[in-house]
Each structure stands twice: as structure tokens, then as C-alpha cells.
């Protein structure tokens, strides 16, 4: 009977050590995950703190490009009007030159 109690205590102790070892391994895994998440958090924080400034600069650049596009579009329209006037003057010149040559 005494041997049975000793054997059961040994089995319970071995199971307790096994469980403690598994819990320690699980804790090590959790610590590694926590370290990785902390690194990821630091990296994303660095990126996201720069994002508003970057977006503001990009927005300013887009607005500058829009203004430049509007100016260039206006200049293109003016050049088209000048070309249309030269084309009209050329047609008028050809008509009158034909009349004068006859």
C-alpha cells in the first residue's frame, strides 16, 4: 500500500513537471510573439507618424499640378484660337487672291 502511494505521488510529480515544462515553453512562445508584435508596432508607428506630412506634401503637389494643368490648358486654347485665326486668314487670303488674279 505504501508503494502504491509513493508511485502515485511520483506519477503526479512527473505530470506536474511535464505541465510546468509545457507552460514554460508556451510562455517563451508568447514572449517571442510579444517581441515581434512590439517591433511591428514600432515600425508601423514610425511609418504612420510620417504619413500625414507625406500626404500633405502630396496634396500640395497635386494642387500645384492642377494649377499648372489649368494654365497649360488655357495656353493650348489660346494657341488653338491663334491657329484657327491663321487658318481663317489663309482661306480669306486665298479667296481674295483668286479674285484679284482673275
Explain this structure to me?
This protein is an all-alpha fold and 102 residues long. It has one helix at 2-101.
List the helices and strands and how they pair.
Blueprint: H1 2-101
Mean pLDDT: 92
Based on CA inertia axes, which overall geometry fits? rod-shaped
How much strand? under 5%
**Global structural class:** mainly alpha
Terminal residue distance: 142 Å
Radius of gyration of CA atoms, rounded to a whole number: 42 Å
The helix tally amounts to: 1
Quick synopsis:
This protein has one helix at 2-101. It is mainly α and 102 residues long. The mean pLDDT is 92.
Entry keywords:
1 helix; single chain; 0% strand; 102 residues; mainly alpha; 98% helix
Amino acid at each position: 500500500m505504501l508503494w502504491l502511494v509513493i508511485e502515485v505521488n511520483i506519477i503526479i510529480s512527473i505530470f506536474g513537471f511535464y505541465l510546468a515544462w509545457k507552460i514554460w515553453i508556451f510562455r517563451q512562445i508568447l514572449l517571442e510573439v510579444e517581441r515581434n508584435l512590439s517591433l511591428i508596432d514600432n515600425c508601423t508607428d514610425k511609418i504612420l507618424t510620417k504619413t500625414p506630412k507625406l500626404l500633405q506634401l502630396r496634396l500640395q503637389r497635386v494642387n500645384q499640378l492642377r494649377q499648372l494643368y489649368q494654365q497649360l490648358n488655357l495656353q493650348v486654347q489660346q494657341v488653338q484660337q491663334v491657329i484657327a485665326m491663321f487658318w481663317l486668314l489663309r482661306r480669306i487670303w486665298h479667296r481674295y487672291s483668286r479674285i484679284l488674279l482673275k
